[in-house]
UniProtKB/TrEMBL annotation:
Belongs to the class-II pyridoxal-phosphate-dependent aminotransferase family. Histidinol-phosphate aminotransferase subfamily. The gene is hisC. Pathway: Amino-acid biosynthesis; L-histidine biosynthesis; L-histidine from 5-phospho-alpha-D-ribose 1-diphosphate: step 7/9. Its cofactor is pyridoxal 5'-phosphate. InterPro entries: Aminotrans_II_pyridoxalP_BS (IPR001917), Aminotransferase_I/II_large (IPR004839), HisP_aminotrans (IPR005861), PyrdxlP-dep_Trfase (IPR015424), PyrdxlP-dep_Trfase_major (IPR015421), PyrdxlP-dep_Trfase_small (IPR015422). NCBIfam families: hisC. Pfam families: Aminotran_1_2 (PF00155). Homodimer. GO terms for molecular function: histidinol-phosphate transaminase activity. The modification N6-(pyridoxal phosphate)lysine is found at K211. This is Histidinol-phosphate aminotransferase.
Length: 358
């Protein structure tokens, strides 16, 4: 059975839009796409009067080297959100199919499903925010075409062990596509499962440059998957998804200097995460600080609303995650620079001697 048998038949049969860039390349005088012949004022020679490549070769090559995949296994788009939306539209028939998620988790999985009028099956994480593989498999129905697993989890920070990912991929073969969201994996002790792609054609991995690579404003993300899945999604992807300034920013971030800079910052975040967790755990009014493998901490408070207001009055905005199951007393605090983290601790009343080494 091909993994494409899980996708919508009408998408498999779709004749995709063929853009001017797809139909012709090279040449010196481009008169095939109804573009302006003049660069915009102040463009500085970036060529923004021309449509970009649908999948820019230089960026695709840089990302394949970064993630250790082949070109045909990679689709680059506007953040992970676009890949999530494309997956749901390609695999879920409106009013008939469904996705499966494990709350608390990233909300865009369910939002994309509901926009498509696909069902959302919820299998909550355990009390310690670990994934219950048996419960996921027990809840699976023929309608479920996509199973999302977020690791490290957003908003709890917990990870799904590699063995559990493999077990799910094996059990879902021929039944559903397993989508592993690794938006925060650069901050985790346990590495990516991207090396499993050649073993399981029903496995897909989401990666992004928004977090560890400091490009949230550029909106560059990737789907890593079986070549047939990548080719299928390209059929329904807009013809020119990546703005040239975003592509250029990504290439700079992925240069030798850019990678060294990013990895240094990842080291700072990991050290600061440990310092913040220890300092916050000693604070009166803090019930617990959840163990996290991401670039944030979920903190349980006796009065999370009062803590939120206290931080806000100090000019600090954190994420109120009390609407999520199992986190009705929690705030999610992103780990910033040492100076920013000190501001959080000061605002919450952590004594100087309890703040640890900055």
């Amino acid at each position: 059975m091909s993994v494409l048998d899980l996708a919508r038949a009408e998408i498999r049969a779709l004749q995709p839009y063929s853009s001017a860039r797809m139909e012709a390349s090279g040449g010196e005088l481009l008169l095939n796409a109804n573009e302006s012949a003049w660069e915009p004022t102040g463009d500085g020679g970036t060529g923004c009067n021309r449509y970009p490549e649908p999948q820019p070769a230089a960026l695709v090559d840089a990302l394949t080297r970064l993630y250790g995949v082949r070109r045909e296994q990679l689709l680059v788009g506007r953040g992970s959100d676009e890949a999530i939306d494309l997956l749901v539209r390609a695999f879920c028939r409106a009013g008939r199919d469904a996705i499966l998620v494990q709350p608390p988790t990233f909300g865009m999985y369910a939002v994309c499903a509901r926009i498509q009028d696909a069902g959302v099956v919820e299998v909550p994480l355990r009390g310690d925010f670990s994934l219950d593989v048996d419960a996921v498999l027990a809840a699976l129905t023929p309608a479920v075409k996509l199973v999302f697993a977020c690791t490290p989890n957003n908003p709890a920070g917990s990870v799904v062990p590699r063995a559990d990912i493999e077990r799910l991929a094996q059990a879902l073969a021929g039944r559903a596509l397993l989508v592993v969201d690794e938006a925060y994996v650069e901050f985790a002790d346990e590495g990516s499962v991207v090396d499993l792609l050649d073993r399981y054609d029903n496995l897909a991995v989401l990666r992004t440059l928004s977090k560890a690579w400091a490009l949230a404003g550029a909106r560059i993300g990737c789907l890593l998957a079986h070549p047939d899945v990548v080719a299928l999604l390209r059929r329904i992807m807009p013809p020119y998804p990546l703005p040239l300034p975003s592509v250029n920013a990504a290439l700079l971030a992925l240069s030798g200097w850019g990678q060294a800079n990013a990895r240094a910052h990842i080291g700072v975040v990991r050290a600061e995460r440990a310092r913040m967790r220890a300092a916050l755990a000693r604070l009166p009014g803090v019930r617990a600080v959840l163990a996290s493998q991401a670039n944030f901490l979920a903190v349980r408070f006796d009065d999370a609303g009062a803590a939120y207001r206290q931080l806000y009055e100090a000019g600090i905005v954190v994420r109120d995650v009390r609407r999520h199951p199992g986190l009705d007393d929690a705030l999610r605090i992103t780990v910033g620079t040492p100076e920013e983290n000190d501001r959080v601790l000061v605002a919450l009343g952590v004594p100087m001697q309890a703040r640890g080494a900055a």
